[in-house]
Design goal:
The chain has 1 helix and 2 strands, in the order βαβ. The relative contact order is 0.23.
Amino acid sequence: MAEAAVPASAAHVVVGGGVHGLTVASALARRLRADGNRSEVVLLERSTLGSGASGIAGGIVRCYYRSPA
């Protein structure tokens, strides 16, 4: 897959293309479109989208674990 050119500026930038970054970028793009805002959402990822270990991400829902916080 060819790399896309990174724009010089953007109103909305999400860093990280793991499960959380992809979810945030997608939800933000849908919300902006629904509100009539046509600004783009830029997603920055150093490697392959969705290829990272999201199990260690800080945003994971705490109820997923059986042990206390």
